[in-house]
Amino acid sequence: MSRLASLLKHPLRELQSEVDEVVSPGRYTLLRRKIICIMVAASLIPLSVMAVLNYYEHQNAMAREIQNPLRVLVNKTKNSFELFLAERTSTVSLIASAYTHAELADQNKLARIFAVMQKEFEGFVDLGLIDADGNQINYVGPYSLKGKNYAEQRWFQEVRLKGKYVSDVFMGFRKFPHVIIAVQHTTEDGRTWILRATLDTRQFERIIASMSLEPDADAFLVNTEGLLQTNSNNYGKVLEKMALPLPPQTFEPTVLLTTDPKGREIFLSYAYFPEADFVLMAVKPKASVLKTWYTVRGDLLFVFLLGVAAVLLAAMGVTNALIRRMKEAEDRRELALREVEHSQKLSSIGRLAAGVAHEVNNPLAIINEKTGLMKDILTMQQTDFPKKEKLLAQVESVLRAVERCRGITHRMLGFARRMDVTSEELDLGELIAETASFLANEAMHRKVEVRLDIDPELPRIVSDRSQLQQVFLNLFNNALAAVADGGRIEAIARPKDDGVVVTVRDNGCGMSEETLNHIFEPFFTTKKGTGTGLGLSITYGIVKRLGGEIAVESTQGVGSTLTITLPKGQREALA
Asked: In whole angstroms, what is the distance from residue 218 CA to residue 240 CA?
């Protein structure tokens, strides 16, 4: 209250102090720092997140591009292994079918056959004929294995069931790593025998060497139990347990990103053999694969830092321009605050009008009483006298004039009481009609049609009479100023849900879209030199304070429509 009283007594001084406080250089410096910090944070946080995401996405993309050649290499090498095994298996199968049991049981003939096999196909170590009971009845090779019985060996059982068998690498009787190929043959008379050949695993090493891997890469064969079938540079020797865990089974070449026992991140490419107990694996360290990416990373960091510097410079430039415009806006605001002083003067005039109306009512009451007494005396006079009727007519004229003056002062008092916030039950249609009568003389003089369309079923509402009167007076004044002579103004009131809707429509000059965006802003006016720009701003504030809504539609050259929605009951905003 003391602040308000001081503002009322010394408006210019108080408003100037407000402006000086806002535009002080220290506050602008702090504001500049805050804006720069916010702009830099808003720019750099998304930029940093994007840089990190791009970093990992590009890294992953490069990894995928590197994985494809590794997958292709494993697939080609796997095909070479399968072709090698299939060729050797077909050779043994052809011999078992082309020669009789007697021929294969002949030592000399079996030796000639084996000599041809070794000449045409590398890798064969020996060749043996085994009967249905597992006894090796003939053998050609560097070992003394004739007469050995294999009935209890797993491979013997496998070949008896499947007809063909390719083993994984094992030691056996030969005491060196080898692979066997066994083919079962059955004659027309039901006699069965097995032709068994041994392969040297050095052929496997040659196939892996043909992959031409880098020095830090590795490739090897394992079986499905995790035993190495060939030597590995990093994970063990042949027939040792592989240091890596077996990957999930798949017959198509697959690449996994995993960590080896040494803690290195590696790309593991592998494929299972469908017809043999082998898994081909190729390993490449991730660090060597992404060596090119690491060299590019420094350039990307430089570009990122350059972008950060650009953001900082842009933020400082934009902030300086913004602060400069804010200073200019504060200068305009100072002028606007002076306009507030003018509106305070208008408010004082309103209070003065209320005092004048109150003082005028006293002599009017005396005139009304005396004139009424005169009328009663003349009416009660039993005898007539000359010009009595004319005198009575003059008395009636005085009474009508007094009644008219009472109506004027009553309306002045109702308008002046707008500063007091009170609520009462009121007839909104009557209030609209009363407010419209304030403009009756000007409308009649300019031949402007003012049409009121009030629904007879319009409900009574609880609101502030004087403030609503000010709202409608502002709307009627604006409409009257917008229409040309001979124009039309309509006020329509209808019930709606739990309230009422009042529409004030005119066929005046209308407003542009740019004007519509600013009509509720304080001190915005299109009446250059005559308007204060406070009418619709005050109207908007009153309607919101009374719990209502206000909307505007306008077309330039056609007219404007303002719609106000008010609740039936009292809202908290009214208190």
From this structure: 16
